[in-house]
Amino acid sequence: MKKYTKIFAILTAVVLLLSVALTGCGSSKTNESKSSDNSSNNTAQTQQKKEPVELTVWSHLTDPEIAKVQEIANKWAQETGNKVKVLADQSDFQAFSTAAQSGKGPDIMFGLPHDNLGTFQKAGLLAEVPDGVINKSDYVPMSIDAVSYDGKMYAIPLSMETYGLFYNTSKIQTPPATLDDLIKLGQQVGFQYDINNFYYSFAFMAAYGGYVFKNNGGALDPNDIGLNNDGAKKGLSLIRDFVKTYKFMTADIKGDIAKGNFQNGKIGLYISGPWDVDGFKKANVPFKVAPLPTVDGKPMPSFAGVQAAFVSANSKHQQEAWDLLKYLAQNTALPLFETGNRIPVLNSVLNNDEVKNNDILNAFAEQAKNAIPMPNIPAMTAVWTPAGNALQLVTSGKATPDKAADDMVNQIKQGIATQQ
């Protein structure tokens, strides 16, 4: 018995020793695991604490507007701990491209006319707008179309502009509602505009069904040009009549001459945009603005321009840049309206009392509802010169509307071909 008791005691001691040893190993592994978890958490926290960045914004707006944008950007910078520089810039596409590709370009371009976007996008310089940056339904639909390319958004709309009909209130109490009214009143009080400028005269071609490029579900087709269809030719005939039949203006009239004649009271009707408003006010011209008159019972489409902002695809701070741009888009609409007569594209700001009570800018906003964004694809650069030449030939009587339209489209097609 003593022998077995002694053996049992030895076995018991061995078991106890093994138990202690195993417990120690388990504790060590547990501590190592906890240490590893703590290390991972610390790393994650370190990664979340990003170093402040400095963003650069280039802007094509006016100096007073840029100062206002800088003021608002400073508030974002203060809230986020980052820095922002908003700089005036009037460089062309090539200068931006060179700067961007060399790492010296801006993170954001703010206030660029939307019709430049196609050229920038084709060169790979635009970052696509991420989901959640804006709610499209908050914006005037036309402005979303203006910053979209092949169905994708590459910029955020900031403001819009188009042209309308200025009328002298000392000569005209009620603005012309129809094209016939415009012609009748024009014969009584005078009517002029920059007639050989395709930007303005497009409205009379579009009124009858003319178009630049066919819009196929949000994608513009440069192979389908509608500037020599029956509607466009009818519009060119009307434009010729403004000069040859009604003698509203000479064939060589320039925009500055028409503007001066309206400002001096020599004419009572004039087509232009918001950029002329302040000058007329300072000159104490008695005027108001109305949407363009209807044609055959339908609103007359005008060209619309949209000031847009985009993030450079070469920006090293994409997340911060989009966060800043979202903040600027939400907070600059009313200040730009007050500072630069920029017509808001945010529905909420359009419904602001300060905006609604401004009869003049509201008239442009009404016209913008029927406006067509200037095509933003690179092919549009091949349109302006042939279109301007066609208008000059028609108004001077050197070509019929039919021939001028056909020649114009052929020249546009040739120009597009050289781009490819």
Provide an overview of this structure:
The N terminus is likely disordered. 49% of the residues lie in helices and 17% in strands. The protein has two domains: 177 residues, Periplasmic binding protein-like II (D-Maltodextrin-Binding Protein, domain 2), CATH 3.40.190.10; 183 residues, Periplasmic binding protein-like II (D-Maltodextrin-Binding Protein, domain 2, 3-Layer(aba) Sandwich), CATH 3.40.190.10. The strands form four sheets. Strands 1, 2, 3, 6, 13, 14 and 15 form a seven-stranded mixed sheet that branches. With 420 residues, it is of the alpha/beta class. Helix 2 crosses helix 11 and helix 16 packs antiparallel against helix 17. It is globular. Its main location: membrane. GO terms for molecular function: carbohydrate transmembrane transporter activity; maltose binding. Pfam families: SBP_bac_8 (PF13416). Belongs to the bacterial solute-binding protein 1 family.
